[in-house]
Amino acid sequence: MSVDSLRQNEVIKEDKKNKLRISGWAADFNVTDSTGIDKVEIYLNGPKGFGKLLGEAKYGLERQDVADAFGNPNYLNSGYSFTYDASSFEPGSLHSFYVYPLSLKGEYQLIKVNIIMEGEEKESNTITSVEAKFGNGKIEIIGWVINKNIIEEGMHRSLDIEYSTKKIVFVSNKTGNEDIFSMNLDGSELTQLTDHPGMDTYPSVSPDGKKIAYTSDIDGTWQLVLMNWDGTEKVQITNNRKSGYPTWSFDGCYIFFEMYIDGDWELYRIDSD
C-alpha cells in the first residue's frame, strides 16, 4: 500500500486546506484473484481506537500502474481517495493522518503521514524550561513554567505555594500489567500505586499534589478513577462510555477528560469531588 498524494511532513498551502486529498493504493498480496481489500479507513491525530475517525475513502479506483508493477491485472482497481476539509487547522500546526486498509479477513495495514500547515504557529502564553537527565538508574527532571500574562517588567509575582514535593508518577508494565508507580526524583522509594487486573494509565496529579486521577480499564471499558497520592482510597468517578485522559483545572475544582462517543473523542468536565 502507499499514500501518493501527500509527502511525509509536507507543508500544506493555505489555498489547499479546504480540499486536502489523501489518495494512494492498497492490496493484500496474500490474495491474487482480487485486491483483497474490503475498505480503507482514515483517522486523524491518532491510531484506530484513539484518533478521530474521518471516514472511509472511496475504494476501487483504477490503478493500472499497480497492476503492471505487480504483474497482476486483479490489482487494477486498488486505488483509493479521500478528501478532507482542513480549514480549521491552525497555521504552523502539525497533524497526522492514519490510513488503514482492511482486508476481507479483517486484517489491516497502516501508514502514518504527517503534515504541517503553512504559516507560523501562534505564540504560546507561557515560557517553559525543562531539563531531563537519565543515567545510573536515575531520572532527574528540572524545569519551570511562567504565565506571560502575569509578568510585569521590574516586578515579580508573589508566591504562596511551596513546591517541595520531589516525586513523579508514571506508568510501567514491570509487573506484567500496566500499573501506576511513584518514586523520588533520585530513583528511590519506588512505590506501586495500582494493582488492578486491567490497565491503569494516564495519571494526572492534582495541583495541590494530594490526589491522582487516572484511566483504568474496568471490565473492558475505560473509566476514570481518583485516588490519594499514596494509592489509597480509590474511587471510580465515571461509569459510562469509554472515558480517559484526565487533566485537572488550575484550581483543582474540576477534572477535564475525553469520552469516546460515536467514533469521536469529545471533551467533558466533572467536579473533582
UniProtKB/TrEMBL annotation:
Similarity section: Belongs to the TolB family.
Species: marine sediment metagenome
InterPro entries: 6-blade_b-propeller_TolB-like, WD40
The protein's name in its UniProt record: Dipeptidylpeptidase IV N-terminal domain-containing protein
Span of the signal peptide: none
